[in-house]
Every structure is written in structure tokens, then in C-alpha cells.
Amino acid sequence: MPAALGPDQTPEEFAANAAAVMNLIAGGMTTQVLHALVALRIPDHIAEGAQTAAEVSRREGSHEHATFRLMRAAASIGILTYAGEHRFGLSPRAHLLRSGVPGSLRSLLLVQAGPAHWKSLGAFPEAVRQGASQAEEVLGMSIFDYYSQPAHVDEATAFSEAMSDVSGLVTAGVVGQLKTDGVATVVDVGGADGHLVLGLIEDRPELTGVVLDLPHAADIAGRNASARGLADRFTAVAGDFFTAVPAGDLHLLKTVLHDWDDDRCRTILRNCRAATTVGGRAVVIEMLLGELGEPDFTAISDLAMLALTNGMERNLDEFDALFTATGWQRGATYPVGAGYHAIEMEAV
Fold first, then answer.
1. Measuring CA to CA, which of 64, 228, 232, 286 is 20 to 30 A from 142?
2. Is 62 contained in some domain?
3. Is 86 a catalytic residue?
4. Does pTM top 0.85 for this prediction?
């Protein structure tokens, strides 16, 4: 009897559990299947109808049989469909991996499976052993400094696009539910390309918007505002939210706090508090940890933050502790889409 069988498992249960664990072990390879699929632009190549691997490989310049093997694997996990006669089409999920379509997760996949994340995750056991990210050991610098290097501009672009895509998943939920009575200026702290605040001020002509981010991201936000005809009500500020935050009536913090440990989060929140008056408001947009032992994607994301940034995902009690320590009081909390929640706060 195998030692791993355990006293309470039948051979059939053992076989089922072994298969389930093997599927989990193969998760990294599944990610790389998707990575290759988008790197070879296969969802784009077959967006208008099923094609063979031979047709795709001619368009992409890839090896025909290897392309077939990739498409076969993608069909086995439900991303592609098999249409017969060696032709493969797109499943509904595959449309999420196309480029230039609303709701696309293509750039997010390129980031998650790309060199910076993949190398850092390879050192994850040591991150747990030490309780600290090993990204600097692996990359030679923090992941944000890595993205700022000219040599990594493609990865930085994918990261910026991924953050925009995440914003797209939640913007409608935020715009539809967030009340802005008495608000004149909205500041998107670490707002990257400005997707969220631009969506808000586009919906509400009485508002002006500001993005605070590093210079390369602020430049993109400014260009996006001009492209959307919102430049007259928008300002892009190049700066550092650990130093100071522009003044405003409402501060947005979308997927910012999970990048940092508690000390750094308190600095960000204090700077936001200093940039508003009593009664001023802020909105944190993050995933929330669920109940222990229950299926919870946020618990997996929490470990990714440990591996990459020394950040963490949090539950409401942990957010409350941060807010109370920095001059904020939590108000309404509500889902805004794709597993994210808006947590409203008021300055006290």
C-alpha cells in the first residue's frame, strides 16, 4: 500500500486525489500554454473562424507541428475548440486572450508569465522561508525599478496595459455606484494610464481629474486624456505617493495598497489624508480575503504579492486597522466586478 494512501482513503480515492494534485502541479505549464498562445497571437489569427495549425503557422512564422501541439493542448483545457479536420476555433474564454477587445486579459497574462514575474515566482519557497520577496535577488532590483529600465520597455508596456485592463473590469462598477455629491476634484493615486478616473470624469462633466504616478505612466495618462477629449479637465502629475499626494476631494486607490506592506500603506494613506480636509473621501479598490479554508483566489494572489513586492491581500479587519491608524473611517463596501470591492472611507 502506498505510504501516501493514508488510513482513510480507498485506492480509488487515492487515484482521484493523485490526479487532482498532478493537475495542480501542471498549473505552471498551463500558464505557459496560454503564454505561448498569446505570444503567437493565435486567438487573433483565428478570431474570424477556425483554422488549421498549418494556416496559423504560415501567418505567424512558427513551426507547424509544434503549433499544432500547442493548439491541441489549448483545446484540451477549453481555451480553443476543435472544429474537425484539424481546424481549431475560439471558445468564449479564448476571446479574453485577444488583443484590442474590451475585457481582454492578454496583457495580464503576458505580465504573469513574463520574465520578471516568472523568475521571481521561481524563488517563492525562499520568499516564504524568509518572509520577504526575493525579486530583488533574482532581478537585481525591485520589480517596479525593473519595469522602469529601457531594456524592459516591452514588459513595462504590458504591465501598464494589464493595469488598464483590470481598471476596465471595475470601472463600470465604480462609476455606477460611487456617489460624488460635493466632489470637485478626483485624484487617482498610482492611477497608471488614468483609465479609472477618466471613466469617472467622462461620466460626470462637473468633475476634474488628476493622476499621480511615475513619469512614464503619467505621460501615458496625459495622452489618454487628450485622446478622449478630456484634457481640459485633467492633470497628469509625475510624482511619488510615498512623498506627497495632490490635494482633492476624493482620492482613488485602485490595486495600490496590495503592493505594499503595512508600514508603506500607512505612509500612502497618511499622505492622502494630508491632501484632503475633514469629511474628504477616499476609495480603496482591492480584492478581499474570504473565509479560511474556503476556495479563495485572493489567497493565491496574496502569495503572488509576497513573491513579487512584499505586499499582501487583506481582509476588512486588516484594512480597518490601516484606516484607523491614518485618519480614515471606513464607510460603505460593495463589489464592483471581477472579484474586486470598493471600500469607501471618510477623513476624520
1. 286
2. yes
3. no
4. yes
Look up residue 198 and give its amino acid.
L
All three cell numbers of 140, joined, read 537585481
C-alpha cell at 127: 520568499
From 78, 99, 120, give the residue that closes a domain.
99
Edge-to-edge, what's the strand order for the sheet holding 185-189? 234-238, 208-213, 185-189, 250-254, 281-287, 340-347, 328-337
Range 101-104 contact pairs with CB under 8 angstroms and sequence separation of 24 or more:
102/168, 103/165, 103/168, 103/169, 104/165
Buried b / exposed e along 274-290 (16+ C-beta atoms within 10 A): ebbeeebbbbbbbbbbe
Q: What is the pLDDT of residues 92-149, one digit of tens each?
A: 999 999 999 988 999 999 999 999 999 999 999 999 999 999 999 999 999 989 998 9
**What does the alpha-carbon distance between residue 298 and residue 175 come to, in Å, rounded to a whole number?**
23
* Residue 50, domain CATH: 1.10.10.10
Catalytic residue among 152, 195, 258, 341: 258
Q: Cell numbers for 308, please give them.
A: 513579487
* Cα radius of gyration (the chain): 22
Q: DSSP strand E in the chain: where?
A: 51-52, 80-84, 87-90, 185-189, 208-213, 234-238, 250-254, 281-287, 328-337, 340-347
Same domain, 208 and 335: yes
Q: Which amino acid, residue 77?
A: I
Q: Which residues pair with 314 in a beta bridge?
A: 288
